[in-house]
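To: structure desk
From: M.T.
Subject: fold request, one chain
Message: Could you run this one when you get a chance? Sequence is below, nothing fancy, just the single chain.
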Amino acid sequence: MMKQIFTIIILISSFFVNAQTNFKEVYIGETSESKLYLNVESIKESFFGDENGKYIEFWVKEKYKAGHKLNGKIYKTPFIQTKYLVDCHHSKYKTLTEASYTSTGKLIKSMKFSEYESFDDVVPDSVGDLIIESACKFHNYGK
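Reply: Done. Structure tokens follow.
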């Protein structure tokens, strides 16, 4: 039942994305500390390794609701943007880039990860599962 409701929300959200060409971030869920947004314009097939089109890459923004500690300092409402590489068919992912910003957009810290690191399994019913499922559904819906 929850998956069906989620699919309906994704399809409704995609209508609004198509209706508003300058709107690229879609709310996909939240934790007790933050809200998550998928940048639907960033979703694209990735030609990683020797299996073209098997992977997708995309950006997710995590906006913190209240004071959050980043790099040893507490910021009022920072956000983090993370770029993922995902294998939708096998529910595996890896983080490619992560950048932390102040609420005004000033860069706090940026990290780039090796694309040669191994893929991680997605933990069922986790925030990662929500992110990966959302991106894979948007990618498949656009085909």
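Reply (cont.): The first helix runs from residue 2 to 19. Let me know if you need anything else for the meeting.
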